[in-house]
Amino acid sequence: MPAKAVYEKRNHVFYITINRPEVLNCVDSETADLLTDAWRTFRDDDDALVAVITGAGDKAFCTGADLKQASQGWLGIKEDRFRVQLQNLEGFLGYTLGVDIYKPMIAAINGYCLAGGLEIACMCDIRLAADHAQLGILNRRWNIGLGDGGTQRLWRIVGLGRALELIITGRLIDVEEALRIGLVNEVVPRGQLMARASQLAEQICQLPQGAIRSDKEALIRGIGRPLAEGFAIEAEAFRTLAFRADSLTEGARAFLEKRKPRWQQHGL
Question: How far is residue 4's CA from residue 136's CA, in Å, rounded to a whole number?
Fold first, then answer.
């Protein structure tokens, strides 16, 4: 029986696939564990520079938690230990509450992106969507809340008013509206989604990775902090980057000498 989530590295791109097309790629506890392992592997692999996550088939990216399993208890969390386990949880759907991955992450949304699936997409930095995709917080209809970062990430992406509307109404939106409100970055013809995601990932891999990661880290760590604290975080990240190997000096020399930089270890 095939694994419910699979991952592989091709060149420097790390591909993660939620592999349950028969149930629209909803996530049960086994799938969540596999996704957690995938994200940690990507985080810790020095040769994996960019991640792309998608769903198997062409009907769904992910439709959230497996409600068949949830109807028997929340993804394996025992009731008498619910609060303790919840406090230590890294996300119901696989490391969605982790905030220590500073490498670029791309969501390739190939169909329905609903409930927790939208939360998985929102944990990524860039969201590409096939032209038939539909997105929404449909778990609202079953009195199921957002537990994988949606209440914190969605409004930071689309703004408070739009996020509250989507959260409260639970309505389904098409890719045109998702693009208009900034929920997705780009709409791609249905059969070209993964090719475009791979192209973008490989383009990012060609860039020196140090500045990308330090800037992403500063942005994430600075969210919600006073401006002066954010400046301090940025300065810390910038100085750390500047004193790594050849990061700043090689880039400046290459610019002045009108040549391509010769990075060591991907410019880290």
Answer: 23
Q: How far apart are CA 113 and CA 23, in angstroms?
A: 13
DSSP string computed for 90-150: S-TTSSTT-----S-EEEEE-SEEETHHHHHHHTSSEEEEETT-EEE-GGGGGT----SSH
45-to-24, 193, 248 alpha-carbon distances in Å: 29, 25, 23
Both structure tokens of 179: 């693009």
Q: What is the pLDDT of residues 81-133, one digit of tens each?
A: 444 445 457 888 999 998 899 999 999 999 999 999 999 999 999 999 999 99
pLDDT (tens digit per residue) in 216-232: 999 999 999 999 999 99
Q: Are 91 and 209 in contact (CB under 8 A)?
A: no
Asked if 198 and 13 count as a contact pair (C-beta separation under 8 A), the reply is yes
Angle made by CA atoms 196, 47, 36, in degrees to the nearest 5: 75
Amino acid 83: pLDDT: 47
- Helix 247-257 and helix 227-242, axial crossing angle in degrees, nearest 10: 70
**DSSP states of 7-28 as a string?**
EEEETTEEEEEE--GGGTT-B-
Cβ neighbors of 116 (< 8 A, separation 6 or more) are 27, 62, 64, 65, 92, 93, 96, 139, 146, 147, 148, 150
60 bridge partner residues: 112
> Which residue segments constitute the domains of the chain, with CATH numbers given?
5-205 (3.90.226.10), 209-267 (1.10.12.10)
Backbone angles phi, psi at 106, to 5 degrees: -120, 135
